[in-house]
């Protein structure tokens, strides 16, 4: 269950970058798969970065989320909101400036958040051929 306390947002870009580095290092330590970081600053007000990663099992996904939340609390003294731990198919961790989505691979493929949040950075699909009579 998510915490009802407000999520802290940093005012300094250096603190946001440090939080992103902590998130990426923690996921690397926990052997997350296919980690990507999407910059959202100037594109959305929900966060400055979105990180998407996969775990090989529900147990790994839940473990990565819990460890990351503990590291953020230890480093910054602030709680993170976590959703989805009971099933751990898709866990959302809201650390304020960085939102982390942790998936099992099949669930990640189904929702395809990378494409949804690409903001035009993704390749344009080829146009359908025009058939003239």
UniProtKB/TrEMBL annotation:
Assembly description: Interacts with ribosomal protein uL14 (rplN).
Family statement drawn from the similarity comment of this UniProt entry: Belongs to the Iojap/RsfS family.
Annotated source species: Sphingomonas glacialis
Locations listed in the record: Cytoplasm
Name of the protein described by the UniProt record: Ribosomal silencing factor RsfS
Gene for this chain: rsfS
Pfam families linked: RsfS (PF02410)
Function (record text): Functions as a ribosomal silencing factor. Interacts with ribosomal protein uL14 (rplN), blocking formation of intersubunit bridge B8. Prevents association of the 30S and 50S ribosomal subunits and the formation of functional ribosomes, thus repressing translation.
InterPro entries reported in the protein's UniProt record: Iojap/RsfS/C7orf30, NT_sf
Keywords: Cytoplasm, Repressor, Translation regulation
């Amino acid at each position: 269950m998510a915490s009802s306390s407000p999520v802290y947002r940093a005012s300094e870009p250096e603190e946001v970058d440090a939080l992103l580095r902590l998130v990426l290092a923690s996921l690397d330590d926990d052997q997350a798969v296919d980690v990507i970081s999407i910059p959202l600053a100037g594109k959305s007000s929900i966060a400055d970065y979105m990180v998407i990663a996969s775990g090989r099992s529900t147990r790994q996904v839940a473990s990565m989320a819990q460890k990351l939340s503990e590291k953020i609390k230890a480093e910054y003294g602030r709680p993170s909101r976590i959703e989805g731990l009971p099933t751990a198919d898709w866990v959302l961790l809201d650390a304020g400036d960085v939102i982390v989505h942790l998936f099992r691979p099949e669930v990640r493929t189904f929702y395809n958040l990378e494409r949804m949040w690409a903001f035009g950075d993704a390749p344009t699909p080829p146009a359908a051929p025009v058939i003239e009579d």
